[in-house]
Design brief:
The chain is an all-alpha fold. The chain is built from four helices and no strands.
């Protein structure tokens, strides 16, 4: 039998930690409009890493028998409504960002401003998002 009293502090701790992380991001992004490129890349990577970690934990959460057995249908409907918005916004973000970067790099290529080191083929032949590599 599962001791439910052990579950409650874990849930409370997770909720508290998520709020602390959100506050940390809010402080970290103050004046982000003035960040240099490296700071913006680091902020974005840290955000992606946290989103990935949270989604992996959410996925694991939905695999737990105590959760799947006791989760009310209404809560699952609410979850899906919010999750599908995140899903579609993420896809739109990906398409928009990738399209803008594509246009930018295409312009740089036409102007001869792409560093030649990026034209070197990867030995593995793997396809990547950028299709470019610094691997020699």
């Amino acid at each position: 039998m599962i001791n439910m009293s052990r579950l409650f502090p874990n849930l409370e701790s997770w909720i508290k930690k998520q709020y602390e992380i959100m506050e940390t991001f809010k402080k970290a992004e103050e004046n982000f409009e003035n960040f240099d490129r490296l700071e913006l890349i680091l902020l974005a990577r840290m955000a992606f890493q946290h989103v990935i970690k949270t989604f992996e934990a959410f996925d694991q959460w939905l695999r737990e028998p105590v959760v799947t057995t006791h989760m009310p249908r209404e809560l699952l409907i609410d979850l899906w409504v919010k999750l599908r918005n995140i899903l579609y916004e993420t896809i739109e973000l990906d398409v928009e960002h990738t399209s803008k970067f594509y246009d930018h790099v295409k312009k740089l290529e036409m102007e001869g401003k792409i560093n030649p080191i990026f034209y070197i083929e990867k030995p593995s032949g793997k396809t990547t998002r950028s299709g470019m590599s610094t691997a020699i």
